[in-house]
């Protein structure tokens, strides 16, 4: 049995005309409607539940809590081989990383999405959903992955790198977990694994979750944004630096001021790929995590306090 959890997104979106691929409204169809559009799945044992119904640009902590709890409960059922989550593309990589760190499941959890609404002339959602179910049912599959456009990415590496193409996602260091070819899953690397932080880490009322914001290094970055966030009561800051996490002198000084006042600071990079080195004398580095994933990691670290 594969459990499908719906959260909305473009895959469940509709437009007034079939030729409109951008002027649509996300999160209009329920997960049962998405399954009905994929007759090839009729022979598989599936169970569908609607966890949320939103555009993923509006993803929030409360939905993350509900989703993590639902995934955990379903995976604990012995008859469930895996879980598929339909999601919007905008924050998919953040949700995937959050689930990976909190649950680190031994069974597969496969997030999938679409770049075109369900009403498009050639929607990509049905194929992606079909592929995701095949990945969730594949022998040996494990961990949190993203299945989209025939490729399977792990939750740590996956990034949305294009605003429009149907193959909008890439693995930051190029290492795919698998490919899906005509319904057949062809493994290419290791399935994600790790130590789960556990649901108790995120059980706190979301109103009391730490506030972690991001700032970018850019030409003319002077640190005033950091000081404004300090005045607003921020708990953590992720700096998306240039290159190998480099920061302007003024931005670096402002971040060190924040650190001295008890705010956790981490350096990432605004580059599409590559790690940030943790070197002596520099602010702490996020390693290979993108800025948005470094933010998730920092939130989880602060919740431990």
Automatic annotation (TrEMBL):
Please give one Pfam family short name: Asparaginase
Residues in Asparaginase/glutaminase C-terminal domain copies: 211-302
- Keywords, alphabetical: Hydrolase
Checking CDD domains in the record gives: L-asparaginase_II (cd08964)
Q: Where do the L-asparaginase N-terminal domain residues begin and end?
A: 2-185
InterPro entries reported in the protein's UniProt record: AsnASE_II (IPR004550), Asp/glu_Ase-like_sf (IPR036152), Asparaginase/glutaminase-like (IPR006034), Asparaginase/glutaminase_AS2 (IPR027475), Asparaginase_C (IPR040919), L-asparaginase_C (IPR027473), L-asparaginase_N (IPR027474), L-asparaginase_N_sf (IPR037152)
Family membership noted in the UniProt record: Belongs to the asparaginase 1 family.
This one is known as Asparaginase
């Amino acid at each position: 049995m594969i459990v499908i959890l719906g959260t909305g997104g473009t895959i469940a979106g509709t437009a007034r005309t079939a030729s409109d691929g951008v002027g649509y409204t996300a999160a209009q169809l329920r997960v049962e409607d998405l399954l009905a559009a994929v007759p090839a799945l009729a022979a598989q044992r599936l169970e569908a539940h609607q966890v949320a119904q939103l555009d993923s640009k509006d993803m929030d902590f409360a939905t993350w809590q509900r989703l993590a709890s639902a995934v955990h409960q379903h995976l604990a059922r012995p008859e469930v081989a895996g879980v598929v989550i339909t999601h919007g593309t905008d924050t998919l990589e953040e949700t995937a990383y959050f689930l990976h760190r909190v649950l680190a499941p031994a069974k597969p959890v496969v997030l999938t999405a679409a770049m075109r609404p369900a009403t498009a002339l050639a929607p990509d959602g049905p194929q992606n959903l079909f592929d995701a179910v095949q990945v969730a049912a594949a022998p040996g599959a494990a961990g949190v992955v993203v299945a989209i456009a025939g490729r399977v990415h792990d939750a740590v590496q996956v990034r949305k790198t294009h605003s429009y193409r149907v193959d909008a996602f890439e693995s930051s260091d190029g290492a795919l977990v698998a490919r899906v070819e005509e319904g057949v899953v062809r493994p290419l690397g290791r399935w994600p694994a790790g130590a789960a932080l556990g649901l108790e880490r995120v059980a706190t009322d979301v109103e009391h979750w730490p506030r972690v914001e991001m700032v970018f290094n850019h030409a003319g970055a002077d640190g005033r944004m950091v000081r404004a966030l300090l005045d607003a009561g921020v708990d953590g800051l992720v700096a998306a630096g240039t290159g190998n996490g480099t920061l302007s002198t003024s931005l670096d000084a402002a971040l060190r001021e924040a650190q001295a006042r008890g705010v956790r600071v981490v350096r990432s990079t605004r580059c599409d790929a590559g790690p940030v080195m943790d070197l002596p004398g520099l602010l702490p580095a996020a390693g290979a995590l993108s800025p948005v994933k470094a933010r998730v990691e920092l939130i989880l670290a602060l919740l431990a306090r």
